């Protein structure tokens, strides 16, 4: 099957167009809300410390509650959870805007509304990736579908900040960007929740429902989460290091945004290309090599002498990101029982967000040291290379579970 035919096959799947196009609209808030929130709280209080704390509250509230939403989605289906959070999240953002109108004296209410907004963000990414897993189990399109999803998802992080900047130019009020993100989340989530793959898929029954630690007990999944956390650390570090590099080389904040944007472009190109490949090696081996490539790319970034060279290296290095994320998401479907997939995907989001927060904080400390920039790149690269070593263990739990799943799928005739 040619590359074009594979992606055409994904596009023509029932609900495929909506998942690919509306899935981006629905998740624009992921790229818009953190920046709009930062600007809103800073404008309200005049303090970046308060703004940064609000951003942390938003991210951690979402990370803490998303596995609970995922488990509920596994038990009763994704649609009810999406419908409820599609309404609750915009209401919380509206309350946040109202609280901000009271000035710095309303800071406790701002933090409360921020926490509720983070906790009620719809588990869209988990539901969408679970849907692709369900829709591509027997047609050989799973890798192409997950590659398309991962690559297009990069648009959220490119378009989101650009839209916030546009709203700031037009209105000068970050609340307009925040409310627009709320509308996009409401409309997009309601649209996706109406898809048959969301509405008609009931829970998997008591015998298959997650109990106790749920997917965390699945063989190989905890090691996969370690690798996902490492990637999150690197991504969070890059969000600090690249703008700092631009600033130290006279490029300013705008140059930092451009450099991060070209990193995303490289990732999208790499993901689209990789989605049509069918490597013969096992998924865990693919994952290990791709993690090693990502880690090495960070080490190379430490050697770049100017923003132009850094931009070129980011495009090339970025081409390894989406393929790594594609294999990562494919492994979830291999390692975790079907009745726990929503929760498993939300755990992926949780550890990635947590790792990103830690990576950004640690990178910030390193960057502030004399000659800290190269060492901060080296820190991010070393973390991902350590994850590559975990994934490469031939007798590790990930490799064992992947081999067992591959044997079972070969016996049943299911293709990934």
TrEMBL record:
InterPro entries associated with the record: MFS, MFS_trans_sf
Keyword match Transmembrane helix: yes
SUPFAM superfamilies membership: MFS general substrate transporter (SSF103473)
Keywords (A to Z) from UniProt: Membrane, Transmembrane, Transmembrane helix
A UniProt-annotated Pfam family: MFS_1
Transmembrane segments: 20-41, 48-70, 76-99, 152-170, 176-193, 224-246, 258-275, 287-304, 310-332, 344-367, 373-393
Keyword presence, Membrane: yes
GO molecular function: transmembrane transporter activity
Top-level taxon of origin: Bacteria
Name under which the protein is recorded: Putative MFS transporter
């Amino acid at each position: 099957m040619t590359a074009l035919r594979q992606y055409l096959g994904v596009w023509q799947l029932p609900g495929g167009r909506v998942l690919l196009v509306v899935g981006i609209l629905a998740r624009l808030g992921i790229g818009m809300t953190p920046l709009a929130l930062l600007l809103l709280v800073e404008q309200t209080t005049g303090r970046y410390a308060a703004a940064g704390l609000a951003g942390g509250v938003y991210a951690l509230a979402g990370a803490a509650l998303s596995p609970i939403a995922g488990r509920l989605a596994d038990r009763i289906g994704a649609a009810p959870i999406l419908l409820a959070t599609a309404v609750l999240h915009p209401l919380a953002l509206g309350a946040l805007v109202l609280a901000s109108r009271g000035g710095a004296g309303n800071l406790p209410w701002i933090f409360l509304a921020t926490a509720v907004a983070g906790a009620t963000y719809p588990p869209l990414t988990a539901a969408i990736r679970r849907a692709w897993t369900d829709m591509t189990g027997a047609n050989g399109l799973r890798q192409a579908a997950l590659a398309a999803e991962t690559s297009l998802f990069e648009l959220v992080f490119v378009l989101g900040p650009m839209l916030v900047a546009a709203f700031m130019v037009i209105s000068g009020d970050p609340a307009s960007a925040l409310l627009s993100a709320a509308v996009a989340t409401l409309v997009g989530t309601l649209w996706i929740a109406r898809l048959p793959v969301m509405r008609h898929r009931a829970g998997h029954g008591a015998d298959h429902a997650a109990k106790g630690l749920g997917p965390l007990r699945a063989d190989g999944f905890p090691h996969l989460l370690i690798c996902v956390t490492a990637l999150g650390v690197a991504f969070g570090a890059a969000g600090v290091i690249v703008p700092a590099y631009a600033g130290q080389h006279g490029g300013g904040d705008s140059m930092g945004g451009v450099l991060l944007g070209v990193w995303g472009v490289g990732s999208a190109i790499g993901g689209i290309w990789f989605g049509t490949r069918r490597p013969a090696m096992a998924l865990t081996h693919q994952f290990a090599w791709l993690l090693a490539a990502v880690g090495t790319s960070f080490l190379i970034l430490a050697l770049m002498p100017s923003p132009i060279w850094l931009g070129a290296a980011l495009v090339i290095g970025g081409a390894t990101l989406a393929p790594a994320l594609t294999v990562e998401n494919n492994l979830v479907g291999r390692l975790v029982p079907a009745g726990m997939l929503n929760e498993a995907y939300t755990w992926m989001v949780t550890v990635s967000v947590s790792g990103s927060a830690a990576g950004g904080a640690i990178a910030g400390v390193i960057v502030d040291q004399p000659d800290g920039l190269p060492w901060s790149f080296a820190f991010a690269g070393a973390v991902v290379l350590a994850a590559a070593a975990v994934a490469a263990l031939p007798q590790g739990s990930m490799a064992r579970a992947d081999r067992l799943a591959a044997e079972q799928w070969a016996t049943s005739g299911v293709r990934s």
